[in-house]
Amino acid sequence: xxxxxxxxALAEVKAGMVLSDELLxxxxxxxxxxxxxxxxxxxxxxxxxxxxxxxxxCAGGATEETVDNAAIERRLARLFRRNDIDDHDDWATGILxxxxxxxxxxxxxxx
Length: 111
What we know:
The protein is α+β, with helices and mostly antiparallel strands. It contains three helices and four strands.
């Protein structure tokens, strides 16, 4: 799934919104590709395929991304609350924390 998206009920979706990921039906067939711009006709046909919610790309920008990053940092702090970042004796947890942080924040993983 794309980094910045929101799940919206079909009633909240409007023409011109962009899918953040490909849309699949119940059998796993691709109905619409990632990045597809929705129109009224497409939105009207989605209930016939059992679609009730869509992952819509956020048009926000840096402010939403900053809020998301802050939430991710808080979550990581909670997950690794028993690990002291400066404790070099616990190197394995430090490496794990770095990899999880890089993954969650969408950064390139440095070996």
